[in-house]
Amino acid sequence: MTAQEIAEFINGTVDGDGKAEISGASGIKEAKAGDITFVANPKYQALIKETEAAAIIVPPGMEMPENKIAIRHETPSLAFARIMQRFGPEPVVYQPGIHPTAVVGKQVRIGKNVSIQAYVVIEDEAVIGDDSVIYPGVFVGYKAKIGARAIIYPRVIIRERVSIGDGCIIHSGTVIGSDGFGYATIKGVHHKIPQIGTVIIEDDVEIGANVTIDRARFDKTWIKKGTKIDNLVQIAHNVIIGENSIVVAQTGIAGSTVIGKNVIMAGQSGLAGHIEVGDNAIIAGRAGVTKNVPAGQMVSGFPAAPHTRAKRLQVLTNRLPELYKRMSLLEKKLDQE
Hints:
Elements: H1 3-9, E1 13-15, E2 24-25, E3 35-38, E4 55-58, E5 69-72, H2 76-87, E6 97-98, E7 103-104, E8 109-110, E9 115-116, E10 121-122, E11 127-128, E12 133-134, E13 139-140, E14 145-146, E15 151-152, E16 157-158, E17 163-164, E18 169-170, E19 175-178, E20 183-186, E21 189-192, E22 198-201, E23 206-207, E24 212-214, E25 220-223, E26 228-229, E27 234-235, E28 240-241, E29 246-247, E30 252-253, E31 258-259, E32 264-265, E33 270-271, E34 276-277, E35 282-283, E36 288-289, E37 298-300, E38 305-306, H3 307-318, H4 320-336
Parallel strand pairs: 2-3, 3-4, 4-5, 6-9, 7-10, 8-11, 9-12, 10-13, 11-14, 12-15, 13-16, 14-17, 15-18, 16-19, 17-22, 18-23, 19-24, 22-25, 23-26, 24-27, 25-28, 26-29, 27-30, 28-31, 29-32, 30-33, 31-34, 32-35, 33-36, 35-37
Antiparallel strand pairs: 1-5, 20-21, 37-38
C-alpha cells in the first residue's frame, strides 16, 4: 500500500510523498524502512527524528521534519490499530461446533456458529450466545449465561448463575463468581457467611488474565458496559464499576465499593471497602484509597490525597533526613549556650 492509500483507509490526510510504499507496521522505536508507525503523545515527539519508519501517523498540528511523511489523524493510536489489523497476521478462525471431548449438560442452550473446543465443561441450563468461542478447558457453571460474540480463553472459570454480556473477552486463568470473602468471627473461630449473590458483566467488557471477580453476598457484583480490566486484578463482592472505566494490573478493590464511569485506576492501586469513587476520577499507581473520591479528582499516595497535595507531602517527606540533621545541629548549639 502507498501512504496515500493508507491515509484514505483511516480517513486521514498525507503531508509528503503520498506514493511512498508502506510494507509493514511497527512501534516507533522498532520501525524499519518501509514501516508505518505513530506518535499520539507529544512527549514522544523527539523520537520522530530518530525512527527509520517511512511514514508516521500524528495528530493535526504536530510539527514534523521535512524528510518525514506524516499522515494526519485526530486519534493516531486508534488509526494505527486499524492499520495493524491490515498488516498483522490473519486472525485465527475456529469452525463452529462442539468438540467430542467437551462435556455439555442438560438443557444447555447454544446459539448459532458457536465454537466449543476440547475439554470444555458446560453445566446444566447454561446459555452460550451466537458466534461465541469457548477455548479448551473452560468451565461454565450451572445457569451461567454468556452473550453473543464472546471470546473465552483457556482455563477460564465462570461459576454458577454468572452473566456475561455480548462482545466480552475474558483471558486465561480468570475466575468469575468465586465466593466473596465473608466470615463472622465468634470466639476466635471464623464462620463462613454464604455468598448467594451473582456477578453481572455487561457488554463489551474485556477482562485480563488471572483476574478474580467475587460473587456478591447478596444481589450482584456488577461490571458495567465497556470497562477494561488488566491482568491480576482482584474485585471483591458487591463491587460496582461504572461504564468505560479502566482497571490496571494488580489493583485490588475491597467489598461494596462503588466506582463511577470513566474512572482510571492505575497499577497496584488499592481501594478500601464501602467507599465511593466519582465519575472521571483518576487513582494514581500504588495509591491507597481509604475514603470517598469526588468526581473528576486525581488522587495519589497513601493514604490517598488530592494529587497536588500528595506531591507536596512527598517532597517534604524526602526532605526529612536533611531537616532532622539541621534540627540535631540546632539542638547541640542550644545545649552549648
